[in-house]
Amino acid sequence: MSPGADRKKGTDGQFRVSTVAPLTPPDPSRGAVRVAFGWRGPWHGVSLTGMTIQTARLSDPAVRAFVTAVNAHDREAFLEVLAPGATMADDGSDRDLGEWVDREIFTSHGHLQVDNESQGGRALLARYSNDTWGEMRTRWTFTVGEDGRISRFETGQA
Asked: Class of the 55-157 domain?
C-alpha cells in the first residue's frame, strides 16, 4: 500500500484502498502540490461538498446573469434580468419579490455557489449563504420568457 493510503471495509465485506489528500500547506520550494479531486487543502478551507460550477459556465444566460448579480450584490443588474411583474416563491409560498430580495439577498449579503444544474440550466442545486441564515443547501428553478428575462423563480431548501 502506498503512503497515505487507507484500507476500509465496504458494505459488501470487501476491502477497498483509498488515498487521502495531503493535509499540509504547499511548499513552494517543492513545486506544485496535487490534492484529491474535490478537495481544497486546509490552507484554503476544506471542501467535502465537491466542485462548484463557475458562474461563467452556467448554461442559461438569464440564470447566469441572475447568479452574477446576486454574488456581486448588484441590485440594479438583478432587477434588469427580471421581467416586468416577475414573481417568486420561497419554500412553496409566494412572496413579495421586492421585500424578499432586499431581506434575503441585498441587505444580508446573499451568495450562491452552484453545485449542479439541470433542465437546460434553469434548475440549480446550490449552497446559498447570507448573514441572516448562514449557509444552506438550496434548490432554484427559473421560468425564462421569450425575451430572455426571468418571469418567475422558486427557491427553497433542498
From this structure: alpha beta
- The type of residue at 158 is A
Would you kindly state where each structural domain of the chain is located, as residue ranges? 1-39, 55-157
Residues 19-30: tens digit of each pLDDT: 444 444 455 454
- Write the pLDDT tens digit of every residue in 47-90: 444 578 999 999 999 999 999 999 999 999 999 999 999 999 99
> Any long-range contacts for 71-75 (C-beta under 8 Å, 24+ apart)?
71/111, 71/112, 73/105, 73/106, 73/109, 73/110, 75/101, 75/106
Written as nine digits, the cell of 4 is 497515505
Q: What secondary structure, in 3-state letters, does the chain show?
A: CCCCEEEEECCCCCEEEEECCCCCCCCHHHCCCCCCCCCCCCCCCCCCCCCCCCHHHCCCHHHHHHHHHHHHCCHHHHHHHEEEEEEEEECCEEECHHHHHHHHHHCCCCEEEEEEEEHHHCEEEEEEEECCCEEEEEEEEEEECCCCCEEEEEEEEC
